[in-house]
Specification:
Blueprint: H1 4-12, E1 14-19, H2 36-51, H3 56-61, E2 64-65, E3 68-75, E4 85-93, E5 98-106, E6 112-120, E7 123-124, H4 136-142
Antiparallel strand pairs: 1-4, 2-7, 3-6, 4-5, 5-6
Length: about 150
């Protein structure tokens, strides 16, 4: 059972954004094209990392790149043009890799649209080698311990 500190940390390591699919996101079947969900996840991930002042420019300045090495999406129901969506991103792992879970919901009804996760690894920009443990700068920015 998680401790109160673990629960508080997990709730702090999340962010929610609003997204409204534009006309150019819609496919011939009049729903959001499946590839555009990745764009919505990226918007949520960027907002989450910016919350900790560790967005992509800050990552680069710290000497690390963080490529996405794994991604999984589960489509529950389609999103449509103009439908307001809430996209929640939560950091779930930070010791050996940066794992982020996502839940996308209809903003009005709360119905689940999509779930996903991404996994990113630290790469030393100088040597181009993957780090097998996340660098301390990530833990410092997130305010967590390894």
């Amino acid at each position: 059972m998680p401790t109160d500190k673990e629960i508080a940390t997990r709730s702090r390591l999340r962010c929610e954004i609003d997204v409204t699919p534009a006309f150019y996101d819609i496919d011939v079947m009049e729903i959001v094209y499946h590839g555009n969900y990745v764009k919505y996840l990226e918007l949520a991930r960027s907002a989450l990392l910016a919350k900790f002042d560790y967005d992509y420019p800050r990552m680069r300045e710290s000497g690390y790149g963080w490529p996405v090495v794994d991604m999984r999406l589960k489509y529950v129901r389609p999103a449509t043009f103009g439908q307001r969506l809430k996209v929640e991103a939560s950091i779930t792992e930070w010791e050996n890799r940066l794992s982020i879970d996502y839940v996308m919901r209809d903003a009005q009804s709360g119905q689940k649209i999509n779930t996903a996760y991404t996994i990113q690894v630290a790469v030393d920009m100088r040597t181009r080698e993957m780090c097998f443990v996340c660098p301390p700068v990530l833990w410092e920015r997130l305010g967590v311990e390894p």
